[in-house]
Amino acid sequence: MFLAGCAAQGPPSGGPDDKTGPELLATFPVNGATNVSPTTTVTLSFTELIEPRSAEGNLVIMPALKRSPGVKTNRKKLTINFYDPLKENTTYILSFGRNIQDYQKNTTESNVTLAFSTGDSLDLGQIAGKVFNIPNKYFAYVRAYRKTGSFPDSILGVQPDYITAVESNGNYRFTNIATGDYRLLAIASQAPGIPFVTADNLIATAPVDPVTIQRRDDSVHDLNFRLVTIYINRFRLQSASLVENRLELVFSRSLSDQLSNNAEIRLSEPGQAQIQSFWINDADPRYAYVTFRGLAAEQEYTLLVDSLFDSFGEKIAGPDNTTGFLYTEKADTVEPKIESSVPNRGAKDIRLNTYIRLNFSEAVINGDPESSISLIKDDSLIVPCRYDWLDGNSLKMTPESELFSKTAYKLIMNTSVWTDIAGNYFEDSLLTIPFITADANSYGSITGEIKARSAVGQALVIGCLTEKKEETVMVAPSESGQYEIEELLPGRYQFEIWEDLNRNGRWDPGRLMPFRVAEPYISYPDWINVRARWETAEVNWTY
Fold it and tell me: How many CA atoms lie within 13 A of 123 on its CB side?
């Protein structure tokens, strides 16, 4: 008996592997209880032994208390002791999220919560929906901030009034919340426990602001989030430094090369200095480069950038668009090269209406690309193309007519006449990029109808994603909701739908500072099979 009493608490040995998490069996007080004593002790009983550290520090009480209660585990039981009496006539929600684990580190399948009231009625407000785009092994939560007078300019560092864990299937639900206006935010992190709102975590703003609970038993459903990287810092030009003979600009956010084609780069100092070229780093769009002619050595200059946009379409503005630098002459001896291309070298199943893009490691001098770059069909016929420089280091070629089906093409570049700004030649004088177009006879299609539950006008966009999510085909349904997606290669596809409210052709995730809602979005888990030369019909979706 003495030895049994001193045995260490832990899981039994032997038997099959345990792959399921603990399940909540019972609570005291029971969920939804009223007239609970302000000095009550709360207990939760589970189906198996609880790992103590998974419970300690993961309890969230809403509304918050001045002093955090004590949390103790004893085998399958969890006890919560409050150091101060609870407020009278108040609904309390206790939540551990999905952080409770057994000794095999299996977590609970659903959110562990308990709601009770110290008065004779319980707040019954609900907000529910789904969080999309949660990576594997990430923990997601939804936060609700109640409006008192007005929402703060920034919710960074502000404690939410309510918080709920997102279940493994992406569903979330707030229950027992009071009437009022709320601002909602979803957040996900790789670390267990409740994450802070930082740039390292995935974030999503709600598509509605504020979310209103008008009555004690009011409910809001289908309020969805799509997690992405949302910048929480200002869009600004952080620094400028000389790298060889070019100025490297570092921005706080990634730049959009499509929206920044007409960027204005200039020096505030008068003189002979001129901007020679400007380009965005294709590998890391937070970096951009500028070359000059006519700069004086050991001279201080002030650079100003304008008409420059981040990847979410926000335009940089003063005074965050200026920086100073000291110009020192440095020799550039690095040979230019092609860093990437579209299509990639050796690519197959390329669409017949494709374009070609070449991204160089730096700005290059090639005054007449038509005489040195050719798209060849079957090693003999030259394909007429239109040539457009997107910036100093990116060239786009657009074939004047659709390419032939299941045909080998080759992009041939005579780089012997190309140099960078400093006059360095390419290492190879002849570069080739072969690719093969898709077989048009293998194309299939998907047709169907979008049944919208509310009037959304002409803003709907349907996205059809390949199984590897390497390409998204976007179409807009007709006024009646009918849609058709053609020229799909055989395979499996998933669908997403959003409302393009600002008509810019891409989904907008919203902002944190200043706060702006995301465009409404929904993703469907079903896979749609496409067969060659076959129309997959009546693929209908409810939005």
Answer: 23
CB contact at 8 A, 465 and 435: no
Contact at 8 Å (CB) between 117 and 36?
A: yes
The Cα–Cα gap between 171 and 176 comes to: 17
Describe the strand order of the beta sheet including 491-499 as a list of residue ranges. Answer: 472-475, 460-466, 491-499, 521-530
Q: Token pair for residue 406?
A: 């299941």
How does pLDDT run along the chain (543 residues), one tens digit per residue? 344 444 445 555 555 566 788 999 999 999 999 999 999 999 999 999 999 988 887 888 888 888 889 999 999 999 999 999 999 999 999 988 888 899 888 888 888 889 999 999 999 999 999 999 999 989 899 999 998 877 766 677 778 889 898 988 999 999 999 999 999 999 999 887 777 788 788 999 999 999 999 998 899 999 999 999 888 788 999 999 988 778 999 999 899 888 888 888 988 876 777 888 899 998 899 999 998 888 888 888 999 999 999 988 889 998 899 999 988 888 888 889 898 999 999 999 999 999 999 999 888 887 678 888 999 998 789 999 999 988 888 999 999 999 999 999 999 999 888 888 888 999 888 999 999 999 999 999 999 999 887 666 668 999 999 887 777 899 999 988 999 999 899 999 999 999 999 888 889 998 887 788 999 999 999 999 999 999 999 999 998
Residue 194 to residues 135, 139, 403, Cα–Cα distance (Å): 16, 8, 52
Helix/strand/coil (H/E/C) assignment for every residue in 48-76:
CCCCHHHHCCCCEEECCCCCCCEEEEECC
Cis peptide preceding 285, ω within 30 of 0:
no
Helix (H) or strand (E) holding 327, with range, is strand 322-327
**Looking at the domain 237-327, which fold is it?**
Immunoglobulin-like (2.60.40)
Going by C-alpha positions, the residue among 167, 166, 186, 184 that lies closest to residue 226 is: 186
| Residue 49 backbone dihedrals phi, psi, to 5 degrees | -60, 140
Is beta strand 364-365 parallel, antiparallel or unpaired with respect to 472-475? unpaired
* Residue boundaries of the structural domains of the chain: 1-122, 237-327, 338-439, 443-542
Rg (CA), the chain: 30
Taking the C-alpha atoms of residue 495 and residue 466, their distance in angstroms, rounded to an integer, is 9
Residue 222, number of CB atoms within 10 A of its CB: 12
Q: What is the pTM of this model?
A: 0.79
With the CA atoms of 107, 111, 116 and 117 taken in that order, what torsion angle do they form, in degrees rounded to the nearest 10?
A: 130
Residue 160, CB-side half-sphere exposure with 13 Å CA sphere: 22
Q: Which of the following CATH numbers is that of domain 338-439: 1.10.10.10, 2.60.40.3710, 1.20.272.10, 2.30.110.10?
A: 2.60.40.3710
CATH 2.60.40.1120 fits 443-542, yes or no: yes
Q: Which CATH number fits domain 1-122: 3.40.50.970, 3.55.40.20, 2.60.40.1220, 1.10.599.10?
A: 2.60.40.1220
CA–CA separation, 528 and 536 (whole Å): 8
Q: Structure tokens of 337?
A: 């090269």
